[in-house]
UniProtKB/TrEMBL annotation:
Topology in the lipid bilayer: Multi-pass membrane protein
Catalyzed reactions per annotation: 2 chloride(in) + H(+)(out) = 2 chloride(out) + H(+)(in)
Subcellular location: Cell membrane; Endosome membrane; Golgi apparatus membrane; Membrane
Name the UniProt record assigns to this protein: Chloride channel protein
Domain CBS: 586-650, 682-742
UniProt organism field: Galeopterus variegatus
Main location: membrane
Length: 746
């Protein structure tokens, strides 16, 4: 009796912290598709089923776009309101943030548009005045108190309900998309807690952003919605195609950049990205951006808080300061990665990691205490970037726009270069202090047990450096117009230098230095600013920052965190240049015990169960006999366990002495002997094999391009050993003089 003619629940699935078999998953999907296509010719109902199966992918993308766009809108609105809550409350309706509160007011003037009677600071509510030292102390105290409360709620919710909701999530998503399984990482609890705690973490004023975690939120949406469709629920490889598209939707709503989102998914996170996934990513990103635009979270018909438009042309000489910003971005990126990884390693290996709540509260307290006295650190980082990107117009009341003779307009209403006033010099000092605080505090913030993105803090560091350089260049051009570098293109009374543009280029350079993004970064930045003419400065800065950062360390921040956590991620960008052979890497080595194998027709159920209980291997090669060692196929441990358990329950007479057959036909059973157990259906009859003299660079390429879990090594047709993905990763680490035992998972 072959009870395996019907599929058994659980066979073909994977254990937690294991790698999927891409080849097997793709093959199963092709078989399923072939079966549906063949049946569609038989009846109308089957044809309808075939059409709905083909359409299900697009429907899933629509749902992912709608859900991730809605959640992003909710997060934006809530974070804006809670950030303002630290400074005061709207008496006209506590649910209004500062800006909306004063929009609704009848007693507000254009000059004092941030001040209206409906908006009360905490000192006005508690001691009825906003003047004097005591009022300042009350506001200071309430600011720190709210920050600590938000941070405490965020870290407590993560610790108790969803430990996977911490961090940015992008290193883990990269690993999952490469075929690794982390159960619960993209589950419903993680989605709920990440959404709530992301709002709390951003509102607490810590040096972190919501953009990275929004990719995790979108991927959670994608994973949960996959369960509504059989095609994606039962196939891990198909599900990863959906998650690639969800990552694109996440970046689309984070920056209001649908094309940048698709390129980010392709360049940064995806491992397998066929053309079909490109189209679906584009559709998901489009729907997500459209949904967010419909919600209009910032009330300005834009998808991000720091949308700007520049119209002044840039000049060839300005490429020099842009490249200098690129060098700064590369240096900052390399410095940040080294120091942050060192701190995170210390957190993992010392007592510090056991007290996540205390760590978060201490960092929040330090951040809030240092941030309040400086208006540029007190405001949210998104608002700070918005202010730095802004090009000063006639109506700007910011200190950054406090120039002398600011109302002498030239042609077309554009403001000419003019001498800096007291406000600009004061703003420069405050921005320099802000830069130092952001550089230092971000190192300790990224990696704590709360949702924390890195895009916004990196952009803030670059934008501050860029604005400082931009104002310096502007003053240089004003006071030294007779210099050769200026007199050819900058005439008296002209608007030559745009400091906001320098801030934008600096932001791109620093983000590129930390993440090593290039194409997607430039596209995201020009989608943010709507300025196509600034692509060349952005490309120059992004490329320079990548070259400088790569010269100081090959890994971007996400790859560094993958290596720190020991995830089995095989980087597709790295070349393997060592002259080793498959026999140098395979198990067993020369003096090791022999390879554990199963024979095709001579082992009992008890023999197999003993091997399973005594070993921890994920699968076993099946051979003709122990003497010949001729390979028949490969069987997974999980499939064996499930099949034997199922046979004991459902097949009469199966006992420990029953013979297991992996052959096509089993011989007739003599009378009074227990029935045999046929398990050929769970046997992989085409496992990947290489010879013992195959160069390791070819083996590494096979693992990368086919996404293998394991590869068997033979010599003249006889089985010699096995190479797993973990063996390959350990060998690569060893060749790079790193600790091979840092690879923790299978």
């Amino acid at each position: 009796m072959d009870f395996l003619e019907e599929p058994i629940p659980g066979v073909g699935t994977y254990d937690d912290f294991n790698t999927i078999d891409w080849v097997r998953e793709k093959s199963r999907d092709r078989d399923r598709h072939r079966e549906i296509t063949n049946k569609s010719k038989e009846s109308t109902w089957a044809l309808i089923h075939s059409v709905s199966d083909a359409f299900s992918g697009w429907l899933l993308m629509l749902l992912i776009g709608l859900l991730s766009g809605s959640l992003a809108g909710l997060i934006d609105i809530s974070a804006h309101w809670m950030t303002d809550l630290k400074e005061g409350i709207c008496t006209g309706g506590f649910w209004f943030n500062h800006e909306h509160c004063c929009w609704n007011s009848d007693h507000v003037t254009f000059e004092d548009r941030d001040k209206c009677p409906e908006w009360n600071s905490w000192s006005q509510l508690i001691i009825s005045t906003d003047e004097g030292a005591f009022a300042y102390i009350v506001n200071y105290f309430m600011y720190v108190l709210w920050a600590l409360l938000f941070a405490f709620l965020a870290v407590s919710l993560v610790k108790v309900f969803a430990p996977y909701a911490c961090g940015s999530g992008i290193p883990e998503i990269k690993t999952i998309l490469s075929g690794f399984i982390i159960r619960g990482y993209l589950g419903k609890w993680t989605l709920v807690i990440k959404t709530i705690t992301l709002v709390l973490a951003v509102s607490s004023g810590l040096s972190l952003g919501k953009e990275g975690p929004l990719v995790h939120v979108a991927c959670c949406c994608g994973n949960i919605l996959c369960h509504c469709f059989n095609k994606y629920r039962k196939n891990e490889a198909k599900r990863r195609e959906v998650l690639s598209a969800a990552a694109a939707a996440g970046v689309s709503v984070a920056f209001g950049a649908p094309i940048g989102g698709v390129l980010f998914s392709l360049e940064e996170v995806s491992y397998y990205f066929p053309l079909k996934t490109l189209w679906r990513s584009f559709f998901a990103a489009l729907v997500a951006a459209f949904t967010l635009r419909s919600i209009n979270p910032f009330g300005n018909s834009r998808l991000v808080l720091f949308y700007v438009e520049f119209h002044t042309p840039w000049h060839l000489f300005e490429l020099v300061p842009f490249i200098l910003l690129g060098i700064f971005g590369g240096l900052w990126g390399a410095l940040f990665i080294r120091t942050n990884i060192a701190w995170c390693r210390k957190r993992k290996t010392t007592q510090l990691g056991k007290y996540p709540v205390i760590e978060v509260l201490v960092v929040t307290a330090i951040t809030a205490i240092l941030a309040f006295p400086n208006e540029y650190t007190r405001m949210s980082t998104s608002e700070l970037i918005s202010e730095l990107f802004n090009d000063c117009g006639l109506l700007d009341s910011s200190k950054l726009c406090d120039y002398k003779n600011r109302f002498n307009t030239s042609k077309g209403g554009e403001l000419p270069d003019r001498p800096a006033g007291v406000g600009v010099y004061s703003a420069m000092w405050q921005l320099a202090l802000t830069l130092i605080l952001k550089i230092v505090i971000t190192i300790f913030t990224f990696g704590m047990k709360i949702p924390s993105g890195l895009f916004i803090p990196s952009m803030a560091v670059g934008a501050i450096a860029g604005r400082l350089l931009g104002v310096g260049m502007e003053q240089l051009a004003y006071y030294h117009q007779d210099w050769t570098i200026f007199n050819s293109w900058c005439s008296q009374g002209a608007d030559c230098i745009t400091p906001g543009l320098y801030a934008m280029v600096g932001a791109a350079a620093c983000l590129g230095g930390v993440t090593r993004m290039t194409v997607s970064l430039v596209v995201i930045m020009f989608e943010l600013t709507g300025g196509l003419e600034y692509i060349v400065p952005l490309m120059a800065a992004a490329m320079t920052s990548k070259w400088v950062a790569d010269a100081l360390g090959r890994e971007g921040i996400y790859d560094a965190h993958i290596r720190l956590n020991g995830y089995p991620f095989l980087e597709a960008k790295e070349e393997f240049a060592h002259k080793t052979l498959a026999m140098d890497v395979m198990k067993p080595r020369r003096n090791d015990p022999l390879l554990t194998v199963l024979t095709q027709d001579s082992m009992t159920v008890e023999d197999v169960e003993t091997i399973i209980s005594e070993t921890t291997y994920s699968g076993f090669p099946v051979v003709v006999s122990r003497e010949s060692q001729r390979l028949v196929g490969f069987v997974l441990r999980r499939d064996l366990i499930i099949s034997i358990e199922n046979a004991r329950k459902k097949q009469d007479g199966v006992v420990s002495t029953s013979i297991i057959y992996f052959t096509e036909h089993s011989p007739p059973v003599p009378p009074y002997t227990p029935p045999t157990l046929k398990l050929r259906n769970i046997l992989d009859l085409s496992p990947f094999t290489v010879t013992d003299l195959t160069p390791m660079e070819i083996v590494v390429d096979i693992f990368r391009k086919l996404g293998l879990r394991q590869c068997l090594v033979t010599h003249n047709g006889r089985l010699l050993g096995i190479i797993t993905k973990k063996d390959v990763l350990k060998h690569i680490a060893q060749m790079a003089n790193q600790d091979p035992d840092s690879i923790l998972f299978n």
